[in-house]
Input
Amino acid sequence: MSQGWKITVIVLAAAGVVSTPLIWLLDSPDAGQLVGASIQAAVGIAALLWAWFQSGGNHTDDTVVSTGQARASRGGAAVTGIKRPRGKGNGSAKAESTGNATATGDDSNAVSGIDYS
Output
């Protein structure tokens, strides 16, 4: 869900929770109006919670196919695939047929596939 739609749903849900039930309850409601106001408030709260917990619109799918021959030395880093620092990103990550990532020397790092570090 994009950020714009998320904000729209949250604003509409908040308005639904407050507006009509408030108007109904201020006018000495009968049992039917009280039930209707309760249901409307519950639906608004459910929509509000649903929109609140939706992820942002930055969903990406990363795919790498047939890479290779990356070398790192003397503290360098080589990744033949996908680098996702600290696991960031909401989409899937897929690496196929990678290989030949070579690291030599102190503090060097080589990854053939997906690097989550």
Notes: The beta strands are 62-65, 70-73, 77-83, 93-96, 101-104, 109-115. The first strand starts at residue 62 and ends at 65.
